[in-house]
């Protein structure tokens, strides 16, 4: 059996608030196999981002277990988690999160710096990824000089540069118009066909339609986990 | 990786140029004042060491008390208690290299129409060696000159300049108390002594001539001072002991009776002067270091602000796999860069300031490689010390908290 990219068992996360412990995520079980494209949906406040942060090893769960490519995340120290994020996960955020003072090329190459890759090779791979997202001509520009859609494509290039197995995207089209959103989703779909597993949070059904599987959250629980209806799949 | 980090540190500094420059200014002022103070302090130490060397080493001055002080030999007159015979006896002691009886005083020197008031020293030839005088032209007088009480003189640079201007003093005749003296030697330059008196404002003549022609002496064979030089610094305590015993015995002082002479250890005086300037230069350095400390706190302050401002950036970096120690190194490097850059500018300004001080005031300054190294080491130390806390705060940030930061 091929190891699942993601396997969570009884995952829970509570935030301590002024009103006491608030359970944002309760008893979540989920497995995502290599090569899957999963959309996570659900109303605001249902715990989607909380879940994504746990999947990204950016936050630690209050209960339950999380296995990323077979390793138990709770057993890893901060440096090992950093290395895991660096090599196995690519993040795409709603707000793009590029470093404003760096050129696009340097932004894309940054994960390689921490992976210990040589400068010349960093350049080459960064340019390659920028070309893949159609921004080869902007390598020397600053993030503030390009549009939101372009920034998100740079963020995707950065997520891809270290050849991760998994891309985590929390509302990547949340700040983009529908046309640009479609471009971004086409890019994700192409990457997924190339074998990368993708987990993507969205509120919009037509964005979720790009994924083959839709997981729905409500009040910190998974309420449905279904393949995308066939007519929606053929639509793209 | 280090290169990439250096580049980023440089960028971060450039992104807030005004702030970086102002932060650096603290270090510039700190390092500049430390370098300048050290240059001045070490200069003072050097000057004192030079002066001490010029005075002659391992010297004692035996000063005669008045006879009435001892009581015993007081015939009422109160002449000097030391004699030339005492000097000769001291010269026989072990560990003594030079002994010279001295009679000195201020006298008017006359050459043609020129007048100059100077210290006239009547003494014997060993004096020249004991005081480490050099003879730049001519010769010193000898024992025969002392025996015959010839009217010859060695002249110091200041006295020579004032009497002869640009003329060569050698062979010229000056008058002291109406008596003509032929200049047979010109003394090398020494500068000031520890009391700030010009040692070159002097004329040295044979003791016998001085007593007969210049000062007059109602007590023949007696003398006010005897200069004694020990062979080595180590020999000084033994020499002092023997000398005291010898003089007491020669002066027939009984047990319990006070000495009728004083011993002044010039080496001890020199040591204490050297110690004083050493303490002074340490103090100067310490005061200047306070500004260095203030500069370091400035760096810490700015780095803390910078960490807060860049919290989100730190979160992004953590998300893409930056390890804590990379973040720590990044911020330490920035602090280090500011302090080392400030140190470089401070060094230039400090050295410049010291040179300017030297040019404007004639103060001796010494800029040593070691003081520059120390300044650099301290600046690097300050960068690391004051940069560590902010860098540690940055590295300890929680990834998700940092990412959420607006
Ligand atoms: N740091 C936090 N401290 C306290 N409560 C939090 C924190 N983060 C999230 N929550 C709470 O946990 C719940 C889930 O939040 P989460 O951000 O996961 O929702 P979401 O599904 O991503 O919503 P949205 O669609 O609006 O992004 C919310 O009720 C939120 O108020
Ligand atoms: Mg969310």
TrEMBL record, chain A:
Key words, A-Z: Antibiotic resistance, ATP-binding, Cell membrane, Membrane, Nucleotide-binding, Transmembrane, Transmembrane helix, Transport
Top-level taxon in the UniProt lineage: Bacteria
Similarity field: Belongs to the ABC transporter superfamily. Macrolide exporter (TC 3.A.1.122) family.
PANTHER family found in the cross-reference section: ABC TRANSPORTER ABCH.1, IMPORT ATP-BINDING PROTEIN
Annotated PROSITE patterns: ABC_TRANSPORTER_1 (PS00211), ABC_TRANSPORTER_2 (PS50893)
The protein's name in its UniProt record: ABC transporter ATP-binding protein
A GO term for molecular function: ATP binding
GO BP term (any one): response to antibiotic
Positions of the ABC transporter domain: 6-235
Annotated Gene Ontology cellular component terms: membrane protein complex; plasma membrane
Xref: SMART domains: AAA
Species, as recorded: Candidatus Accumulibacter affinis
UniProtKB/TrEMBL annotation, chain B:
Ion transport found in the keyword field: no
Pfam families: FtsX (PF02687), MacB_PCD (PF12704)
Domain of life: Bacteria
Membrane topology field: Multi-pass membrane protein
Domain MacB-like periplasmic core, residue spans: 20-246
Domain ABC3 transporter permease C-terminal span(s) in chain numbering: 286-398
GO terms for cellular component: plasma membrane
Gene Ontology MF: a single term: transmembrane transporter activity
Cross-referenced InterPro entries: ABC3_permease_C, MacB_PCD, Macrolide_Exporter_MacB
Keyword tags: Cell membrane, Membrane, Transmembrane, Transmembrane helix
Transmembrane segments: 282-307, 327-351, 363-389
Location relative to the cell: Cell membrane
Principal localisation: membrane
Homology family: Belongs to the ABC-4 integral membrane protein family.
Protein name: ABC transporter permease
Biological source species: Candidatus Accumulibacter affinis
Lineage, uppermost ranks: Bacteria, Pseudomonadati, Pseudomonadota, Betaproteobacteria, Candidatus Accumulibacter
């Amino acid at each position: 059996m091929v190891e699942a990219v993601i396997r969570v068992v009884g995952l829970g996360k509570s935030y301590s608030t002024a009103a006491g412990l608030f359970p944002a995520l309760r008893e979540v079980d989920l497995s995502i196999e290599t090569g899957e494209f999963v959309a996570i949906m659900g109303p605001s406040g249902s715990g989607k981002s909380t879940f994504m942060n746990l999947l990204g090893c950016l936050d630690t769960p209050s209960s339950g277990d999380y296995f990323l490519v077979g390793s138990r995340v709770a057993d890893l120290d901060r440096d090992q988690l950093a290395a895991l994020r660096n090599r196995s996960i690519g993040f795409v955020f709603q707000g793009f999160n590029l470093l404003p003072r760096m050129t696009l090329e340097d932004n894309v190459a940054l994960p390689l710096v921490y992976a210990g890759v040589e400068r010349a090779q960093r350049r080459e791979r960064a340019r390659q990824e920028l070309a893949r997202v159609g921004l080869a001509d902007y390598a020397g520009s600053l993030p503030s000089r390009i549009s939101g859609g372009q920034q998100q494509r740079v963020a995707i290039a950065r997520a891809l540069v270290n050849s991760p197995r998994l891309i985590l995207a929390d509302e990547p089209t949340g700040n983009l118009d529908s046309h640009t959103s479609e471009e971004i989703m086409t890019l994700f779909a192409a990457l997924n066909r190339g074998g990368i597993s993708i987990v993507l949070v969205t509120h919009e059904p037509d964005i979720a339609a790009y994924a083959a599987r839709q997981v729905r959250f409500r009040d910190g629980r998974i309420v449905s986990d279904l393949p995308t209806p066939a007519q929606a799949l053929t639509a793209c | 990786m280090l290169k990439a980090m250096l580049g980023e540190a440089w960028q971060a500094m450039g992104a807030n140029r005004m702030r970086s420059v102002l932060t650096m200014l603290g270090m510039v002022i700190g390092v500049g004042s430390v370098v300048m103070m050290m240059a001045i302090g070490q200069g003072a130490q050097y000057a004192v060491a030079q002066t001490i060397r010029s005075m002659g080493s391992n010297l004692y001055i035996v000063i005669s008390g008045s006879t009435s002080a001892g009581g015993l030999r007081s015939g009422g007159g109160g002449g000097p208690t030391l004699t030339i015979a005492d000097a000769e006896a001291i010269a026989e002691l072990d560990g003594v290299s030079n002994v010279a009886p001295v009679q000195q005083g201020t006298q008017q020197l006359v050459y043609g129409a020129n007048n100059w008031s100077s210290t006239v020293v009547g003494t014997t030839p060993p004096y020249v060696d004991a005081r480490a005088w050099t003879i730049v032209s001519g010769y010193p007088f000898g024992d025969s000159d002392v025996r015959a009480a010839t009217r010859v003189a060695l002249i110091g640079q200041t006295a020579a300049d004032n009497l002869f201007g640009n003329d060569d003093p050698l062979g010229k005749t000056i008058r002291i108390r109406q008596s003509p003296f032929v200049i047979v030697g010109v003394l090398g330059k020494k500068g000031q002594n520890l009391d700030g008196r010009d040692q070159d404002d002097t004329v040295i003549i044979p003791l016998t001539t001085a007593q007969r022609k210049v000062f007059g002496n109602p007590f023949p064979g007696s003398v006010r001072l005897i200069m004694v030089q020990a062979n080595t610094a180590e020999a000084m305590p033994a020499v002092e002991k023997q000398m005291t015993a010898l003089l007491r015995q020669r002066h027939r002082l009984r047990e319990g009776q006070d000495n009728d002479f004083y011993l002044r250890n010039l080496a001890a005086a020199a040591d204490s002067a050297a110690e004083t300037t050493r303490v002074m230069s340490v103090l100067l350095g310490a005061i200047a270091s306070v500004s260095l400390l203030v500069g370091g706190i400035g760096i810490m302050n700015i780095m803390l602000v910078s960490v807060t401002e860049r919290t989100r950036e730190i979160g992004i970096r953590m998300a893409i796999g930056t390890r804590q120690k990379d973040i720590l190194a990044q911020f330490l490097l920035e602090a280090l860069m500011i302090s080392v850059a400030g140190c470089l500018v401070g060094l230039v300004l400090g050295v410049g300031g010291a040179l300017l001080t030297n040019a404007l005031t004639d103060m001796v300054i010494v800029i040593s490689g070691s003081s520059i190294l120390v300044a650099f080491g301290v600046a690097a130390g300050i960068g690391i010390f004051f940069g560590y806390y902010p860098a540690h705060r940055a590295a300890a940030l929680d990834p998700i908290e940092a990412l959420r930061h607006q």
